[in-house]
Design goal:
Blueprint: H1 5-9, H2 12-21, H3 29-33, H4 36-39, H5 64-79, H6 82-89, H7 100-105, H8 119-124, H9 127-135, H10 140-143, H11 161-173, H12 183-190, E1 193-197, E2 203-207, H13 210-220, H14 230-248, H15 262-270, H16 275-286, E3 291-293, E4 303-306, E5 318-325, E6 334-341, H17 347-358, E7 364-367
Helix pairs in contact: 2-12, 5-6, 5-11, 14-16
């Protein structure tokens, strides 16, 4: 195996994970990963700044860059298509500091896509990316919208590289999500995937074996509520409030968030012109507990967030359904393959999906300090 600086610099557990997604790291990707616009993503947490907070136990080593590379590896593995692979690589290139917390600040908690608006402009205005694209016979428009490639992205709850990667990564790496998915299981699930065709005739990743698909969802569903529960809502809203205050007092502009890393943004909050904001971000970062309930506490000093509609994330993958048909005059039946949603074949999976769709967090979540 030959690879470059990015792959060789990764922690060993992530290297092993990536080599399941594709057994030989594509050397040609290294030049794109090394561009300034992509390199910045190494300073952004895939987990929206939760790694700075004591009441989260999240890995500090998994960045938006790593997630983007993981998505690209999945697309490359199944398609060997550079356009689609680079679209997957670039899909989060416009991420701001604190990622989806800024979507929440923008009033887009339900779709969490408001921060994708400048993807094309970033690619088009990058001298280094455009030079590489020209070398490979591609144009910015070919790689700036991963929504046009269904293996890279499709409508939830279908299985795409993006949705598959963050489910696998969170189940593998995030200690307090509770799935604890070992690499052996990831390999078992991943190696059972093929490209199938869904109910709309589009290409989509599909499981060959219904039993393996069911096992996958039974394990992975344990983490789904973490992306919309009270703790996540509290975290997103408080970061949004603190960032908005920093913008108002002139610590940085909203546009600056698309140039800063998480660490740089936190540093600016800690050195804010507003002494109250400096105190609030310190308390937020060192807060070891959060609380939830349907009524607020009887105390003076706390900051509460009321539950709000937020994006629900779950999967309902395709599974292969082979059956034999007899053709008139033919000696042997013909094997025909169709695909169905796992939830139509498994009552257990149908119940998991119904539960997450109907799941509600507590009405309030709060921390034991004030934000003015």
């Amino acid at each position: 195996m030959t690879s470059g600086n990015y792959f060789n610099s990764l922690p060993r557990d992530i290297q092993k994970y990536f080599l399941i997604l594709h057994p030989v790291f594509p050397v040609w990707l290294e030049d794109y990963i090394a561009t300034p616009e992509m390199s910045r993503l190494s300073g952004l947490s895939q987990l929206c700044g939760t790694n700075f907070l004591d009441f989260w136990d999240t890995p500090r080593e998994y960045s938006i860059l790593d997630h983007s590379v993981g998505c690209a590896l999945i697309v490359w593995h199944f398609t060997r298509n550079k356009k689609q692979t680079l679209a997957a690589l670039f899909h989060d290139i416009a991420s701001p500091a604190f990622k989806h917390c800024i979507d929440i600040m923008n009033g887009d908690a339900l779709t969490q896509e408001s921060t994708e608006r400048s993807t094309f402009d970033i690619i088009k205005n990058s001298t280094s990316i455009c030079k590489l694209l020209k070398r490979d016979g591609l144009k910015p428009k070919d790689v700036a919208d991963y929504h046009q490639y269904p293996i890279a992205d499709n409508d939830s709850p279908r299985l795409s590289s993006d949705r598959l990667e963050y489910n696998l990564m969170n189940a593998y790496l995030v200690r307090d999500y509770g799935a604890k998915l070992p690499l052996s299981k990831i390999k078992r699930f991943y190696n059972n995937l093929i490209i199938g065709h869904n109910e709309d005739g589009e290409e989509e990743l599909a499981f060959l074996d219904y039993r393996i698909a069911e096992e996958f969802i039974c394990l992975i569903q344990k983490i789904w509520h973490n992306w919309s529960d009270s703790r996540y809502q509290l975290t997103g809203k408080i970061y949004a409030e603190l960032v908005q205050k920093a913008i108002v007092c002139g610590d940085f502009t909203e546009e600056d968030l698309y140039q800063l890393t998480d660490g740089q943004a936190v540093d600016k909050l800690l050195r804010s012109k507003d002494k109250n904001l400096r105190s609030e971000i310190r308390k937020f970062m060192s807060c070891s507990n959060y609380y939830t309930g349907d009524t607020l506490p009887n105390r003076k000093y706390y900051h509460a967030v009321e539950s709000y509609p937020i994006k629900t994330r779950f999967l309902d993958p395709l599974v292969c359904c082979d059956y034999k048909i007899s053709l008139h005059g033919a000696k042997n039946p013909v094997l025909h393959t169709e695909y169905a949603r796992l939830s139509t074949k498994s009552k257990k999976i149908k119940s998991y999906i119904r539960r997450i769709k109907n799941w509600h967090s507590d009405k309030y979540a709060w921390v034991n300090f004030q934000i003015n």
